[in-house]
Specification:
Length: 246
């Protein structure tokens, strides 16, 4: 039986976040330029978005480009921006009734890429079948610092008191405040780290790591991750018996 067939359709996570890693190594193993791995990776993004919608996932957050990735060789950064420009495909969103949202420091993104992204965000904002969130020029420490700054400014202006700064107001100050925290966080490509991704939001996410490079990731791999997630008991600090209601 496939993992897809074994899934409990009533317990699909609402929010799945993915660190799409391994494009470079996928290409290098084939004697290709790293950018070819990124190009293949973009095709997989489109497929996985459709797969996620089909499974009933409501929010799919994809780590596309980190703050630290700006330090890569100039040609690779340029190739990634070009790929972004060419592949922000409004048609795919419209066809699937998926809303696009972006989290990250968009001010750093080249103007024409940014314009295209805003256009797609605007033209898909009525769709509510699912939401695809691209983390672009994103890092958690950037996001958390920004949130702290925003709250401090409000406190200085007297708009809030410091006693109002709690888990809820901090969550609300995050760029991800419009969605629930991810129940499942997947990283492809074999590395066992979070690389500055959703550090606040993943406080209680189930983590799933696989060796598959992102260009080889597919529906069955996604289902395997969700199946694995469904086998786990999420305890949130309680005992197993408490959670099971025994
Ligand atoms: C992930 O793949 C994509 C980005 C970071 C943009 P990598 O480019 O990091 O691939 P590896 O880790 O070098 O194989
Ligand atoms: C994380 O991958 C960022 C994205 C997938 C966009 P990296 O390949 O940049 O992560 P590190 O540097 O190896 O941890
Ligand atoms: Mg990598």
């Amino acid at each position: 039986m496939t993992y897809q067939e074994q899934l409990d359709k009533n317990r699909i996570p609402q929010h799945v976040a993915i660190i799409m890693d391994g494009n470079g190594r996928w290409a290098e193993q084939r004697g290709k330029d790293r950018t070819e791995g990124h190009a293949k990776g973009v095709e997989v993004v489109k497929k996985i978005m459709e797969n996620a919608v089909e499974l009933g996932i409501k929010y799919l957050t994809l780590y596309t480009f980190s703050t630290e990735n700006w330090n890569r060789p100039e040609y690779e950064v340029a190739a990634l921006m070009e790929l972004m420009f060419k592949n922000i495909d409004e048609e795919v969103f419209i066809k699937n009734h998926v809303r696009l949202r972006v989290v990250g420091d968009l001010d750093r993104i080249p103007e024409r890429v940014r314009a295209k992204i805003y256009h797609c965000i605007d033209n898909t904002k009525e769709f509510d079948r699912a939401c695809m969130v691209i983390a672009l020029s994103y890092s958690s420490r950037w996001e958390i610092s920004r949130a702290v700054r925003m709250l401090a400014e409000k406190a200085v202006k007297g708009e809030i008191s410091t006693s109002q700064i709690d888990e809820k107001t901090v969550s609300d100050a995050m760029t991800t405040s419009f969605m629930p925290d991810p129940e499942l966080l997947i990283r492809t490509g074999g590395e066992l780290r979070l690389s500055n991704f959703l550090l606040w939001q993943a406080a209680y996410s189930e983590l799933y790591f696989c060796d598959t490079f992102w260009p080889d990731f597919n529906m069955e791999e996604l289902c395997k991750a969700i199946y694995t997630y469904q086998q786990r008991q999420r305890r949130f600090g309680l005992t197993g018996a408490q959670v099971a209601g025994r």
